[in-house]
């Protein structure tokens, strides 16, 4: 399945985005543009593949859904403490591309220090939270009592293990149905994040999830062939391929 409606008017998709068709709004989280630059600054060199991969995946979403707006739920950039030169160029390149094709709203994440400086010349809104059709969208690094709530920050994944111990780790959506919380997978292909296999609230990065009934959450893994509904997290510990 490429899309699953988990709340009225809210769908999750195999493109690692949330889609609100009545509002023509797509939501993604955790781009972490500039990850390679931050590693290079620390003397670690990897191929510069992420920015191109992120832009290509965003282009697929724009082409497929033709959204009136794209909301990025935090961590647009990667480096905490400074704006690296190449990171600034990469962020501006991706945002310039998007700005030519749709309205873009940037919800600020904990990695987004100095983001306003980067986007000042394109006059793109940077906000702490965004509300669309009664749904609050935040990054998730700070407490938020609003419900229903869409968030990122956690980079959720799930681990499927075979009989000899080899495993496949997949990004996933987390849906706390009774609590009205949806956690988006990281959009960055390099962000591993929290493994929710057998996870408890104390394993979570977000204060929102540390107060939630995490074992009751429904898990939807993102695969190359679509979304894979895996059911409640409490049943997944020790899941085998």
Helix content: 10-25%
Mean pLDDT: 88
Taken together, the total number of domains comes to: 1
- Find the structural class using helix and strand composition: alpha/beta
Q: What's the architecture in CATH terms?
A: 4-Layer Sandwich
Cα-atom Rg, whole angstroms?
A: 17 Å
Strand content: 25-35%
Shape type: globular
- Would you tell me which CATH topology applies? Purple Acid Phosphatase, chain A, domain 2
CATH domain class: Alpha Beta
Count of distinct strands: 15
Give the end-to-end Cα distance, rounded to a whole number of Å: 19 Å
Give a nutshell description of this structure.
The chain has 241 residues and is α/β, with parallel strands linked by helices. The chain contains 5 helices and 15 strands. Helix 2 (50-65) packs parallel to helix 3.
Written overview of the protein:
This protein is of the alpha/beta class and 241 residues long. It contains five helices and 15 strands. It has helices at 35-41, 50-65, 85-99, 115-119, 207-210, and strands at 3-7, 10-13, 18-20, 25-28, 69-73, 103-107, 126-127, 130-132, 135-137, 149-151, 157-161, 167-176, 181-183, 218-223, 226-232. Strands 8, 9, 10, 11, 12, 13, 14 and 15 form an eight-stranded mixed β-sheet that branches. Helix 2 runs parallel beside helix 3. The mean pLDDT is 88.
């Amino acid at each position: 399945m490429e899309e699953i409606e988990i709340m009225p008017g809210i769908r999750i998709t195999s493109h690692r985005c949330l889609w609100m068709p009545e509002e023509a709004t797509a939501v993604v989280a955790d781009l972490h543009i500039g990850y390679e630059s931050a590693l290079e600054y620390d003397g670690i060199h990897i191929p510069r593949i992420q920015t191109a991969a992120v832009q290509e995946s965003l282009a697929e979403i724009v082409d497929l859904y033709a959204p009136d707006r794209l909301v990025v739920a935090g961590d647009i950039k990667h480096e905490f403490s400074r704006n690296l030169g190449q990171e600034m160029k990469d962020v501006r390149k991706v945002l310039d591309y998007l700005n030519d094709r749709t309205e873009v709203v940037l919800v600020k994440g904990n990695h987004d220090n100095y983001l306003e400086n980067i986007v000042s010349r394109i006059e793109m809104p940077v906000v702490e939270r965004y509300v669309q059709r009664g749904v609050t969208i935040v990054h998730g690094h700070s407490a938020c009592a609003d419900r229903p709530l869409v968030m990122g920050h956690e980079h959720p994944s799930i681990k499927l293990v075979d009989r000899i111990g080899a495993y496949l780790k997949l990004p996933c959506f987390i849906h706390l149905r009774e609590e009205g919380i949806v956690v988006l997978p990281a959009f960055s292909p390099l962000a591993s994040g929290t493994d929710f296999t057998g996870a408890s609230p104390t394993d979570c990065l977000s204060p929102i999830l540390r107060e939630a009934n995490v074992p009751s959450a429904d898990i939807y893994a993102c695969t190359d062939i679509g979304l894979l509904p895996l059911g409640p997290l409490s049943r997944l510990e020790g899941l085998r391929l």
